[in-house]
């Protein structure tokens, strides 16, 4: 036995979040990875098409652009849940360990819930209107992009609600290595 005092390890993983929230985060990472690869292949196809005109396809650029928009929206909830969004950390250092710290976290999460619900509602309204307009090359309805926005902002609201109930626990940190596979 060692003379060092035994302390419980502090984990940055969101183990205190319910299973469905952890599964939602896994699905968002998976979907984000798919869209990332679509961006990559769309851009690479464009580059190859410049040098081999026989395989040039105008839709490759549109696939890459639309995938970038979808990636941005679909990972919004994940980034909110993992604190990958912009945060003012000055208050964290000043209020650490005080009751007001938990109040500040709850307030920030409530603001995020309200914001995400408002954006999800607007996305829903845009989905209703966007079926008539289509993209130039693929002729995909613009409403599909707003479906991704709706999913992302709804997910952000869910993650923020979970953060309200976990405000007095250590927050998970965004760990880039977990995105590597």
From TrEMBL:
Its main location: membrane. Residues 40-165 form the Tripartite ATP-independent periplasmic transporters DctQ component domain. It holds the Pfam family DctQ. GO terms for biological process: C4-dicarboxylate transport. Signal peptide: none annotated. GO terms for molecular function: transmembrane transporter activity. It is found in: Cell inner membrane. Keywords: Cell inner membrane, Cell membrane, Membrane, Transmembrane, Transmembrane helix, Transport. GO terms for cellular component: plasma membrane. It is a multi-pass membrane protein. The keyword Transmembrane helix applies. The keyword Flavoprotein does not apply. The chain crosses the membrane at residues 29-48, 54-80, 100-121, 141-162. Belongs to the TRAP transporter small permease family. This is TRAP-type C4-dicarboxylate transport system permease small subunit. It comes from Glaciihabitans tibetensis.
């Amino acid at each position: 036995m060692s003379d060092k005092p035994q302390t419980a390890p502090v984990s940055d993983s969101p183990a205190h979040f319910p299973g469905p929230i952890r599964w939602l985060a896994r699905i968002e990472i998976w979907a984000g990875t798919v869209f990332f690869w679509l961006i990559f292949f769309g851009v690479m196809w464009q580059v190859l098409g410049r040098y081999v005109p026989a395989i040039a396809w105008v839709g490759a650029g549109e696939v890459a652009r639309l995938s970038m928009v979808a990636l941005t929206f679909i990972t919004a909830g994940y980034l909110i849940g993992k604190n990958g969004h912009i945060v003012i950390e000055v208050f964290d250092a000043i209020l650490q360990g005080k009751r007001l710290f938990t109040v500040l976290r709850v307030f920030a999460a409530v603001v995020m819930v309200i914001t995400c619900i408002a954006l999800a509602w607007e996305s829903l309204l845009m989905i209703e209107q966007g079926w008539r307009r289509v993209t130039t090359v693929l002729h995909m309805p613009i409403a599909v992009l707003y479906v991704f926005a709706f999913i992302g902002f709804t997910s952000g609201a869910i993650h923020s609600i979970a953060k309200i109930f976990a405000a007095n626990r250590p927050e998970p940190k965004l760990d880039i290595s977990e995105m590597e596979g």
